[in-house]
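Hi R.,

Quick one: here's the Hyaluronan and proteoglycan link protein 3-like sequence you asked about.
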Amino acid sequence: MEGSLFYILMSHDLLHPGVVFPYQHPRGRYQLSFMEAKQACEEQDSTLATPEQLIQAWKEGLDCCNAGWLADGTVRFPINQPRVTCGGPNLLPGVRSYGSKDKKRLYDGFCFSSALKGKVYSFQPKGKMNQTEAQQACQSDGAQIATVGQLYAAWWLAGLNGCKAGWLADGSVRRLITLPSRKCGSSKPGIRSLGFPPPERKYGVYCYKLDD
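And here's the predicted structure, written out as tokens:
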């Protein structure tokens, strides 16, 4: 469903600056084994987050009701806003742990992306594009289509500003919200996922270019 995934605030680890973000398979919630979650994060230019990184992210506002794999093989989820649909309104805020699970069990993943080696930018040279056109547009500009991890790192660490929805390398479309407004569809900053639309749908694109 369009606009169904919205995560308010990510975080950085004080010793290893970066950003923690939840990641789902294109098929939806709870589709990733431990190894698949690890691979999915790596494909997003990230790694599976550690428990310490997730706790730090929770302290700075990360709220996600979907349980996800972490690097140590445990499954956890951070709650800052207890609610009926997420453990009940009487549940105290915190990082909930299911402990170590069979690594073939299916959950989401929590990824950690550190400092960028290049820049991410919104690109729309001749109007909105389908997925193939978006990939070609980045290539024609001497860049490649950005990963989810690169977009989060650019927003949180490099201060990327904007409100446009754009294609990413995994086939998802996401909207970066730095300055909340009615136009951006949210009252809070963050990165909003519009899911994995059909490839013929048209949006902008986020490109990634290595530093010279």
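The chain has two domains: 11-112, 116-210.

Cheers,
M.
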